[in-house]
Amino acid sequence: MFADFLNRLTAPEPDPMPDEDARLALTALLVRVARSDGDYDNAERAWIDRIAAQRYGMSPFEASKLRGEAERLEAEAPDTVRFTRAIKDAVPHEARIGVIEALWQIALADGERDAHEDSILRMVSNFLGINDRDSALARQRVEGAG
Predict the structure, then answer these.
(1) Which of 23-27, 108-112, 135-139 has the lowest mean pLDDT?
(2) How many domains does the chain fold into?
(3) What is the rounded CA–CA span in Å between residue 60 and residue 71?
(4) Residue ranges of the Co-chaperone DjlA N-terminal domain (predicted)?
């Protein structure tokens, strides 16, 4: 179902993604982080829906539909390294810190910091071109808003 999308995303020199594709890819990355600790629960799903609704101006129904598509894409997506690098190539740098904040919201949705989630956030931040300090500041902003 997503084979063509994944081929475009992981091409050696991908074209910039249309907004709709970028939304799907970034939401799939949120799903990947949420699943990284082996406990993908309703609180994390609700946070992903909330983030999508706020970030993209969607209704709750549209956000839930996007998350469902992202869950299927994430299951078929390549390893996190290639997947994240492809997103980096397609998303402007100034938008990526917001992506990191959204990822921290998901990682912290259950109220606990998990070593698996911390690890994947460090890796994803690096591959998105966001340094550890800026990722830590993004996490602190999310923790302060919670």
Answers:
(1) 108-112
(2) 1
(3) 16
(4) 23-140
Three-state DSSP class for 130? coil
The structure tokens listed for 87 are 């997103």
In a domain, 6, yes or no: no
This model's pTM is above 0.85: no
Here the CATH number for the domain that contains residue 117 is 1.10.3680.10
* Token code pair at residue 62: 């549209």
Q: Per-residue b/e over 133-142, b at no fewer than 16 CB within 10 Å?
A: eebeebbeeb
Please, are residues 30 and 48 in contact by the beta-carbon 8 Å criterion?
yes
Residue pointed to by tokens 């969607």: 58
Q: Is residue 48 part of a domain?
A: yes
Domain range for 110 is: 18-145
pLDDT tens, residue by residue, 125-142: 998 999 999 999 999 999
The token duo for 71 is: 């869950």
